[in-house]
Amino acid sequence: MQTASTEAVAQYFDEFDFCLDSMDSALSGPSMTKALNRQVEVHPNLTKTNILIKNVLILNSPEDHGPAERELTGLLGKFETAYATEPGYAEARAYLDAVCALGLPGPAASPAALDALAPNYMQAYRRVLSVLGDFGCAPLAPGAAGRAAPADADICLSVLDAIVEGHTKTKALNALSNRVVRTMCVGNDDDLACLAREMGSKRTAFMTKWVGGAQGGEWEGSQEDVYYQALIELLSNGLTAGARGLRNPWANAYARVVAALVRELGARRTPASSRVLTSFVTWESELRRTLRSAGWDENPLDLVGVWAVGDDMDLLPDYAPVAALSSGGGGGAAAAGGMLRVMLKRDGSAEIPDNGRVKGLRWRLDPGPTHLDTLRFEVRQAAGGGDALGGEEGALLSYTGYVDRGARIEARFSRRPLKMTGRLTRVVRGEQRPSTRFSMRLVERED
């Protein structure tokens, strides 16, 4: 069986899937739809996420759209040079024109242009609008002028900001906080490092302008300064960084930043950098461990049974960690439905039925700080199972799914399949290697 390299898999998993073809995978070669999905690589740091999404959400500081607009204009020419002679180019270019218009100051695609899109590209265009809308971008009416831009959530605004016109320090820090959140949700490691460097280099100028004069360094050590540096630390070290020295209201503001990240990273399909994802898994594990009470049931009866687990990236039939867990251990079964079956037993053990190449280990449910509890289970390559997980001997797959408490209660009465989504992390010799999202549903209850 072919094994996808860690580098190739990471690149593929860090992208939203808007318009990939059924033949596209981390192992397949270049294609027009891959380039179209990535919006063509025209920037050295934009090799892992979709350029239009990053362009609109995080690429430039709020006051400077020039470089972002120049990149989109150059992108159109580069795509034409590379694929003008390919079959289906006209339909692909029409879609690309419509998408790029969202990030340019001119009019959005006209109603006639959208009506003329091929059905698969119209669906892809709607996905683009949906993802932008998730981050607060108001929908642009067809043909309307303007550039799509995200709306900032209230993270640290003061009560005076609602009545005071013009800029204030809390408005400035609120805009910066939202930019940090968006970067951590859709950026790669380079984007995080770039923003951290930018904020570090602009710290003095920012604090002098918004908090206090340069004379005597009045702003140094202020709560605004501590908060600003906590955001830099968050970009550099992820959620495990913590925030020391913050007092209310800035401690509350930092808590809102963390809450926004948990909502995005824990229950959505948002791509994330390996740094963010690894820190999220570590942070969440430690946090939930402290929330368990003496009466907490780690293996509740309503979760016992057989779960069908599907990998979100079902376009990867040759990705060994997924294919090895299908009932036959081959890529065909994973490609056919992307489903493996895991039996969660009342004693806390996990079994993989009809598969001798991998063995289930333990499962447990941990309480969450919100309505989302965490179900974890692990599988490991069995002795003599060969390279079933596509990695080194002893490689382990750790599944972390998020269960809505309200959905659990509803499922007890309706008997509908309980569903959850989560993240799959590959662990080799203690090192966590984030992979992809997965979804799962309870198909056979023990009770």
Name the features.
447 residues, alpha+beta, 8 strands, 15% strand, disordered N terminus
Describe the overall structure.
With 447 residues, this protein is an alpha+beta fold. Helices cover 41% and strands 15% of the residues. The protein contains 16 helices and eight strands. The protein has helices at residues 6-13, 32-38, 51-57, 66-83, 89-101, 111-115, 119-134, 169-186, 189-201, 203-210, 223-237, 250-267, 274-291, 320-323, 331-337, 405-414; strands at residues 305-311, 339-344, 350-351, 358-366, 372-381, 396-404, 419-428, 431-445. It has an eight-stranded antiparallel beta sheet. Helix 8 packs parallel to helix 12 and helix 9 runs antiparallel to helix 11 (223-237). Mean pLDDT is 74; it is low at 1-13, 40-49, 311-338 and 386-392.
Map the helices and strands.
Elements: H1 6-13, H2 32-38, H3 51-57, H4 66-83, H5 89-101, H6 111-115, H7 119-134, H8 169-186, H9 189-201, H10 203-210, H11 223-237, H12 250-267, H13 274-291, E1 305-311, H14 320-323, H15 331-337, E2 339-344, E3 350-351, E4 358-366, E5 372-381, E6 396-404, H16 405-414, E7 419-428, E8 431-445
Antiparallel strand pairs: 1-2, 1-8, 2-3, 4-5, 5-6, 6-7, 7-8
